[in-house]
Amino acid sequence: MPRSFAADPHSYARPNEIAVSHLSLDLTVDFEARQLAGAATLTLDRRDPDAREVVLDTWRLDVRAVTTPDGTALPYELADHDPVFGQRLAITTDGADRVVVHYATTDDARALQWLEPQQTASGKRFLFTQNQPILGRSWIPCQDSPGVRATYDAEVRVPADLLALMSATNPTARNADGVYRFEMPTPVPAYLVALAVGDLEFRELGERAGVYAEPTVVDAAAWEFADTEKMMEAAERLYGPYRWGRYDLLVLPPSFPYGGMENPRLTFATPTLLAGDRSLVTVVAHELAHSWSGNLVTNSTWNDIWLNEGFTVYFETRIDEELYGADFTAMLLRLGRQELEQWLAIEEPRDTWLELDLSDPDEGPSKIPYEKGSLFLRTIEAAVGRERFDAFLRDYFDRFAFESMDTETFLAHLREALLTPLGITDEDLQVEAWVRGPGVPSNEPHFASDAFDRVDAEVAAFLAGRPAADLDAADWVSQQRWHFVRALPDDLPYDRFDEADAFFGFSGSGNIEIATAWLEKVIDAGYLFERPAVDTAMADFLTRHGRALYIKKVYLKLAATPTGLDRAREIYADARASYHPVAQMAIDKIVG
Question: Could you say which of 239, 370, 550, 572 is catalytic?
Answer without folding.
Answer: 370
